[in-house]
Amino acid sequence: MSKVIERILNLLAFLLTVGRPVSAEEIRFTVAGYEQGEDEAFRRMFERDKELLRELGISLEMQATDAFEVEYGYVVPEGGYELPDPGLTDEERAALWLAAQAVRLGGQPSGPEAIFKLGGVPGSVGGEPLSANLGEDVGLLGDLFAAVVEHRVAAFTYRDKARQFKPYGLVHRRGHWYLVGELVDGEARAFRVERITDLTVGDATFTRPPGFDVQRSIPDAPWEAGPDEMTAEVVFDASVAWWAERELGANANVKKQPDGAIRATLPVAHPDAFIGWMLGFVDEAEIVSPPELRQRLLDQVGAR
Amino acid sequence: MLPYVIANPGVGVQDLSERFGYRRKELIDDLNLVFLTGLPGYGPGDLIDATVEDDEVFVDTADYFARPLRLTPPEALMLLASGMALISAGQGPPALESAISKLSGVVAPDSGGGLVVDLKEPEFVDLLRDSVEAAQVVSLTYTAIGSGATTERDVEPWSVFSANGNWYLSAFCRTADAERVFRVDRIRAAAATAETFAPPDEPPPPEVRYTPAEEDVRTIIRLNPSAQWVAEYYPVEDLGDGKIRFSSGDPAVAARLLLRLGEDGELIDGPEVEQLVADYRTRIQARYARD
Q1: Is residue B101 situated within a structural domain?
Q2: CB contact under 8 A, B119 and A112
Q3: Does residue B278 share a domain with residue B231?
Q4: Which of A143, A208, A279 sits opposite B73 (nearest CB)?
Q5: Looking at this predicted complex, what is its ipTM?
Q6: pLDDT (tens digit per residue) in A179-194
C-alpha cells in the first residue's frame, strides 16, 4: 500500500505543478512509480490511481494538450483540488467532529477523513450527547447535494416517471429527506429522496431563483401541503389537548379554554390527511367549520 | 496532514499525532514515505523535505501541497447535516453554529439555505437523557400511539434516540415487566425518581421494533391501492391480493386505522375490532349531532 501512496503523491505533485495537460504516456515515463510494467499493467495501475484520487475528492479532466486538439491530456481542473479556507478555529472543528459522531446518515457515523481535511481535531474529543439517524443512502444524497451546490439539472425516475428537475435544496423533515426545486417546465415540486431512482446529474446548469425559500417548501404539518386552501376551526377536549397542541404545527392559532380544552384555527390544504388525523381522536375532537369539511368527515365515518 | 504541517512549521509530534489520529510510529512512517516523493527529477531539490528534529516536524519544498484538499459531496453533506441536526435539536454550541455557517459558505456558496435539517426535540428528551446517564428510574405518564390509552409506568431508561423523524426511549418497563420502546412525544409527564438501577451490560440496539406477541389481536384487512402506505408504515403480514394481517396489542390500534382508511380499507376478519369500529362511528356521529 505504501508504494501506492508514494506513487499517488508523486502523481499529484506533478499534476499540481506542471501547469498544462499531460498525456498518460508522459505520466508513465515521467512520474516515479510507473516505470516498470507492460502497457496493460500501466493502464490498469493508472486507472486505479485515478479512481483513488476521485475517492479523495480529486477528479481529473481531459483537455487538449495544444491548440490543434490532436492530443488530449489530464489536468486537475480549477477548483478541483483545493478547499477554500473556511477559517475554522480549533473549537469549531471540535464541535463539528462531535456533531459528526452523534449523528448518523444511512446508519453510518462519518469517518474522520473530512475533519482531517479541515485540519484535524486537537486532543481527543469524547462524548455522544445525541444519537440520531438521519436515514438514507449517503451515496445518493451526496450526488443530490452536489447537484444542489453546483446548480446542475438532475434526471431521475420517480414513481415510474422520468423527470428533469432543477434541485434547489435538500430538506430533512419529519424523518424523511426531500429534494425540492422546480421541474424544468417550471412547476415547483418536492420529491421523497428514498423514492428517487436512476439518478444522473448532467452538465446542464440552471440559475437558482434568488427568492426560493427551501425552509418553507416542506410544510410543518402533513395537511399543509395540497391543492386546496381553507381555514379550519377545531376543538379538542381537555383529555387530548396536550397531544393536539404538540402536533398542530407553527401555523395554527391555538386558544386555551377554561376547562382545559383547546380551540384552534389552522390552514388546511390536504383535507384527507387532516380528516385522517382528526379521526384518530375519535369523539374527543370536532371540526367546527367550515361546514363542507365537517360533512366530509361525517361522510367518511358513515361509509358502509 | 501535510497542509497543516506546512502552515505550522515546527509543530510537535505529539500534537500532530493527536490531531490526526496517529500513533507516533505511524506518523514517523508516513513522514518517511513523504520524504521519498516529490517532483520529476527526484533529486535532492525535487523531493519533499520532511524532517523531525527534537520532536518538531518540518516539511519544505512542497508548497503545492499547502492547500487542504476539498471535501467530497458526501463528506460535506455529512458534516453539514449532522451539525444542522444538532443545532435544530437545540444541542448546538455557538462554536458549531459558526462552524456550520463558515463551512456552508465554502462548500455551498450561492445555494443559500440549500440544505435544511430539522430535528426538533420534544419535551422531556433532556430529562430522559440525564436519567439514562444517572441510571435513575423514571415515572412516566404515557399515551399509546394507536389506542390512545393512557397509563402510568415506572421504567429503567436505557437510551434515547431519534429515528424516522421521531424520538424514542428504549427502557425496561417495570409495570409491564418487559423491554419496551416508547415514543417520547407521547410521554405526557416524566419525573426522575430517587431510585437507581443497574443498567444491562449490553442494552439492545436503539431501534424501533415490533414483534407480534401470542396474545395480540390479529385482524385481516383488504387495502385499496391508494392505501398501500399502510403496508409500508406498519409491520404487517402481506397475504397477497391486497390483503394484510395486522397484529396489535390493543384492538383500538386496528380500529382507529380502519376509521382513518374509510372506503380505502375493508375489514375481512376481526370481530372484536369490528365491534370497536362500530362503536367509534356511533360516538363520532353522536358528537357531531350534538350541535
Answers
A1: no
A2: no
A3: yes
A4: A143
A5: 0.72
A6: 988 888 887 788 888 8
